[in-house]
Structure to design on (244 residues):
């Protein structure tokens, strides 16, 4: 299905990003893993290469640093000459009731979750525009569409991703680049293990347009959905005019 495609999955050293990378690799794509920690990433790269039986790549960079992101895409261009798929998955969760949200939390959450996705989308669109084709998937959240007590900050950053998706999809469609967002519900990862409330005990976390709270493997396949389906679905929050 993805044979011959080169895909960058940001935040793929663990969690949803890692499982997405594995799904893509099994579907034939060559994956560039990303995260901030080079040694952890190299371990993952070897693991994925062994699993797929072919060479996978890794590029350590912080998605919230615009200059670093630009340099990373220059490296991608120099090394591979193209990029077919970007999954804007890297994200952080800093939950607090409104009165407890510190300024630094606001800065950091938006920097990583929203600005980071925008920096990557800009750089990827430049590369994909050269080829006249590409697909970008932004990982939003059910909290960005439905909201939840104590998650105003996180939900705002994830709602920003939906707005970003809608406009970028329209702008990039004439260049042959599809932009979509997915909004998963609760998934058991390192991120959600810090939450006091686990899957199933909170209505808004447990209900999602992609299904109830679940395991990484069952829901990561939904991330490859925008790369294949031609049909509208509740998980597709926005799509370009180009065919899916
Ligand atoms: N788990 C859920 O229930 C759920 C539900 C809906 C949406 N999501 C979204 O899905 C995405 C992945 O979540 P997850 O649950 O898999 O989280 P996770 O297990 O905490 O993994 C987050 C990944 O992002 C990377 N990362 C964090 N900050 C980064 C930065 N500044 N630059 C580059 N990489 C960075 C981490 O790597 P390093 O720390 O090594 O850099 C890690 O690989 C997030 O955007 C999250 O908001 C999650």
């Amino acid at each position: 299905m993805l044979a011959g495609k080169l895909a960058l999955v940001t935040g793929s050293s663990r969690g949803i990003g890692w499982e997405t990378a594995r799904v893509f690799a099994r579907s034939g794509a060559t994956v560039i893993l990303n995260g901030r920690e080079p040694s952890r990433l190299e371990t993952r790269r070897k693991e994925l290469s062994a699993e797929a039986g072919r060479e996978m790549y890794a590029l350590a960079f912080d998605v919230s640093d615009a200059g670093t992101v630009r340099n990373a895409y220059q490296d991608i261009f120099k090394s591979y000459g193209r990029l077919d798929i970007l999954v804007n998955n890297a994200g952080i969760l800093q939950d607090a009731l409104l009165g407890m949200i510190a300024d630094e939390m606001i800065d950091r959450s938006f920097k990583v979750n929203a600005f980071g996705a925008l920096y990557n989308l800009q750089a990827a669109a430049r590369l994909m525009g050269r080829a006249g084709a590409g697909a970008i998937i932004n990982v939003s959240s059910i909290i960005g569409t439905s909201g939840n007590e104590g998650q105003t900050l996180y939900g705002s950053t994830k709602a920003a991703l939906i707005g970003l998706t809608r406009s970028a999809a329209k702008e990039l469609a004439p260049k042959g680049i599809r932009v979509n967002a997915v909004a998963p519900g609760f998934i058991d990862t390192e991120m959600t293990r810090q939450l006091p409330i686990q899957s199933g005990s909170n209505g808004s976390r447990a209900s999602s347009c992609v299904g109830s709270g679940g395991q990484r493997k069952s829901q990561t396949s939904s991330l490859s959905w925008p790369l294949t389906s031609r049909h509208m679905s509740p998980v597709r929050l926005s799509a370009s005019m180009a065919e899916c």
Remarks:
- The domain at 6-237 is CATH 3.40.50.720 (Rossmann fold).
- The pocket of NAP is lined by residues 10-17, 34-37, 40, 62-64, 89-92, 112, 139, 141, 184, 186-187, 189-192 (CB under 6 Å).
- Confidence is low (pLDDT under 50) at residues 198-213, 229-244.
